[in-house]
Amino acid sequence: CGSSDAKFIRGGNPEVIIPAGFDTTTLSWVDLSTLNTSTEIVNINSERTHDASWLLQKDLNTCLDANGDEFPDPAGLANTDLFSYGRGKYNLDKPIFAKLPGVSKWALHDFRTQFKANTPENPLEDGGGTAMKAAARSGDNDDGNPNTDLVVRCSNVQRNIFNEGQCRISYHEDACQSTPLPDPNDSYRIWMNDPGGTILETTYKYLPSYAGPHNGGVVVCGSENEVEPIPTEDDHFDLTNRKMESSSIDAFAQKENAWVEVVLGAQDQLCQRLAFGLSKIFATSTETNADSGNSETNIAVYDNFVNSCFSTYKEVVTRASFNQEMAEQLTFIHSKAVHLEWHIRGKLAWPDENYGRENLQLHNIGLVKLHDDGTPVLNQYGRKEANYDQKHIFEASKIWTSFGASSRRANYEDLDWATTSYLDPIQINEVRGRDWFPK
Q1: Burial of 22 (0-12, 13-18, 19+ CB in 10 A)
Q2: Per-residue pLDDT tens for 384-407?
Q3: Quick one: pLDDT band at residue 353, thresholds 50, 70, 90?
Q4: What's the alpha-carbon Rg for the chain, to the nearest Å?
Q5: Buried b (16+ CB within 10 A) or exposed e, 230-264
Q6: Which residue from 299, 234, 244 is spatially nearest to 92, judged by alpha carbons?
Q7: In this prediction, what percent of the chain has a pLDDT beyond 90?
Q8: Which of 322, 328, 333 lies closest to 285, judged by CA?
Q9: In a 3-state reduction of DSSP, which class is residue 255?
Q10: Apex CA 206: angle with CA 201 and CA 211, to 5°?
Q11: Which of 313, 322, 334, 413 could join 296 via S-S bond, C-beta 3.0 to 4.6 A?
Q12: Of 316, 253, 320, 335, whose CA–CA distance to 285 is shortest?
């Protein structure tokens, strides 16, 4: 098991065998042998899993196993267990077994992350607040925090240029907001600076007082392609989570495999080919950013081009430009206007010119003027005539000021130590740093 040469078992996972006469009081297990295999517990994706995966469809309405002991609570994993203390990847819960219908047939429980449909057309009514409150922990947990600790984040998407036309007001009593309320103790930032500490973010920061049917309501928004997976298909990939993994998964290979399976097997092959061509024009790489290992957020970079299949090139440029990886890789994220640097910080500094230049050169008009037949326009001296010069780069750079990443949220794969989203579009997050003058 510890060898790097370990391979998957051909023919599917072996059956879990509990020998006859084994003392089951030493196990955490549940008896499912009397359930109906057509409606209450069903075999899923039989061809790919070789009858090795079963999905429980019935609520057992109990937190106790067959021995009367409580099931382990996945929310009890210590957020602070980044090293070797607390409950986490170095001190895992006991496995849970189940006795299945059939003669001496057993299974081992496999935790799966639940994702909900949260599209622009149909955003979550509560923004994910119900799940956030249900998973929250309080002061009796191992970190000793007297507040209610955040385990599952709010899923509400910040309003942005792609979803704002379909956002709605929710009067759900558990509706949560996309950005946290101010914390007078700034405890989350303290925790980020000291990830081995015990000061954690609290759920109340995402639960505004104006939620509920008798108050002003909360704006809820969704994001494109944020659909609910089909559990019976059993098609899933591993999510990176440093608190639960005892060893690293090959995230880069997984990302590539997921991409290949989609682009070769999708029904919209014309869109896939167009997207592949566009991906070679726009300067975004999924190999050099802080989120380079995750599958979902990196494939979403490519989805910008797939989603633009039947739109204009302007829409393509907009989607690519408002992507967090583009802003980070071409360094205009957090770029500030001249007046802010001068009046607030007392120094003369220009906005970052990287994307202003690259956008003109690679994504739009190019370096030199061209005739309709593609040949370069020459000036009176027989030299190629430039499309732009430094003053145009400087003016273009003013456009890309005061952008920052969206707040991190739930319902997708992301870096578990990040405070910002690598999936959602960037936002103008500091008005005073924006260059509002004509360009």
Answers
A1: exposed
A2: 999 999 999 999 999 999 999 998
A3: very high
A4: 26
A5: ebeebeeeebbeebbeeeeeebeebbeebeeeebe
A6: 244
A7: 37
A8: 328
A9: helix
A10: 155
A11: 413
A12: 320
How far is residue 49 from each of residues 14, 108, 213, 228, 250, measured CA to CA in Å? 11, 14, 46, 21, 21
Nearest residue to 100 (alpha-carbon basis) of 15, 20, 33:
33
Question: Cβ distance 128 to 175 under 8 Å?
Answer: no
Burial 360-376 (b: 16+ CB within 10 A, else e): beebeeeeeeeeeeeee
Structure tokens at 141: 């947990």
- The β-bridge partners of 91 are 88
β-partners of residue 41 are: 56
d(CA 382, CA 389): 18
- The full DSSP string for 270-331 is HHHHHHHHHHTTS---SSSSTTTT-SHHHHHHHHHHHHTTTS-HHHHHHHHHT-HHHHHHTT
What does each C-alpha distance from 197 to 77, 136, 418 come to in angstroms?
A: 15, 18, 16
**If you count them, how many residues does the chain have?**
439
Cβ neighbors of 216 (< 8 A, separation 6 or more) are 210
User: Helix, strand, or coil here: 97?
Assistant: strand
Task: Taking residues 350-374, report their average pLDDT.
Answer: 93
Q: Using alpha carbons, select from 368, 371, 374, 439 the residue that is nearest to residue 400.
A: 439
Contacts of residue 395, Cβ cutoff 8 Å, sequence gap at least 6: 356, 439
Residue 168, token pair as written in the block: 């709605």
Kindly indicate the confidence band of residue 377, based on its pLDDT and cuts at 50, 70 and 90.
very high
DSSP 8-state symbol, 202: B
Instruction: Please give the pLDDT value at position 346.
Output: 85
Lowest-confidence pick of 79-88, 94-103, 386-395: 79-88
Contact between 108 and 96 under an 8 Å Cβ cutoff? The reply is yes
Report the candidate in 81, 7, 1 with the shortest Cα–Cα distance to residue 244. Answer: 81
Report the alpha-carbon distance of residue 175 to residue 168 in Å, rounded. 12
Closest CA to 305 of 288, 294, 320: 320
Instruction: Determine contact, residues 409/423, Cβ cutoff 8 Å.
Output: no
Handedness of CA 304, 306, 307, 309 (dihedral sign): positive
> Helices (DSSP H) in 12-170: which residue ranges?
46-49, 129-135
CB-CB contact of 333 with 324 (8 Å)? yes
